[in-house]
Amino acid sequence: MQLAPTQLQQHLQRGLKSLYTLHGDEPLLAQEFADALRAAARAQGYTERTVHTVAGAHFDWSEVLASGGSLSLFADKQIIEIRIPSGKPGKDGSAALQQIAERAQGDDATLTLVILPKLDSMTTKGAWFGALESFGATVKFDPIDRRTLPQWIAQRLQQQGQRVAAGEEGQRTLQFFADRVEGNLLAAHQEIQKLGLLYPPGADDASAVLSFDQVENAVLNVARYDVFKLSEAVLSGQSVRVARMLDGLQSEGESEVLVHWALAEDIRSMKRVKDALSAGRPMPMALRENRVWGVKEKLFERVLPHIGDSTLAHLLHAAHKVDGIVKGMKQPDWPAEGWQALHRLAGMVCVQCAGPAVRR
What we know:
This protein has helices at 8-14, 27-43, 62-67, 90-104, 121-124, 127-135, 149-159, 167-181, 185-198, 212-218, 227-235, 239-251, 256-278, 283-289, 295-303, 309-326, 338-353, 356-359, and strands at residues 2-3, 19-24, 46-53, 77-83, 110-115, 137-141, 163-164, 209-210. It has 360 residues and is of the alpha/beta class. Strands 1-6-2-5-4-3 form a 6-stranded parallel β-sheet, with helices on both faces. A two-stranded parallel ribbon has the order 7-8.
């Protein structure tokens, strides 16, 4: 069965299962979920815990299989954790995990917890993952995106008895907080905890309200960005956020060439899809043929009807110039420094993707 992270408390009220598989690319949420499972298990008498970390192609799975059937003299129940950092158990591991999953049914003495990173669709269709899903509960932890991050911060503040001011001031505070911690949820969690220590809520209600100045003075700039999120922000026309992300990528030492490739590839993809539409292809078919899907699929559907062929040709020409700049060549009427040129190119695409009202 599949279980959503938000269903944890309701699930625990119905009782623990004997097998859980946690996977995804948000370690903080997975860790908190696992901690809650362990706490519930300890309360029910699972006093012994064994951790196996699968490392390398020659990992000995026999020890993992043996631990499931052995209890110490001092424990009636046990927790067995199997951590697979690579997400690839290998041939022997695949067979072992299927055996572990089948054995978990009806085993009230052992709680097995399998912890995995983000998995691709092919891996989740494998026999071993299918067995874990069939005989236990699987929980996927998706990242908290920028759009929902302010709400997540507000909920976490509320859990420790704090909140921001009502209305526009509070929204401004949450947006500022989100800008500083975007892409780094663990650091966001730590900054929220720090606010709890710096400004602990007192007996009066007013002490629980955090001002913008308090958040601005306390929260460090720990945001982390990646090139693929930059691409989504550009296609969304979020020019201010894009400028901040480019500055962040530069300070993190990201390659100018990689950033340019991401921007240029989106422009090329838009041009190919636009050409397919002009040739009479329906939008869904044009997107599928050009391998555009997921979040970008929706963004392309929104922006392409408003961008003309001449505009895309102009953006392609600009991308060609910036390609030379990031490789050390000079271009007339363009900044000589690569990051400045990337800012300009990204800004040009943002303006077009933001819609007709912005371009006017």
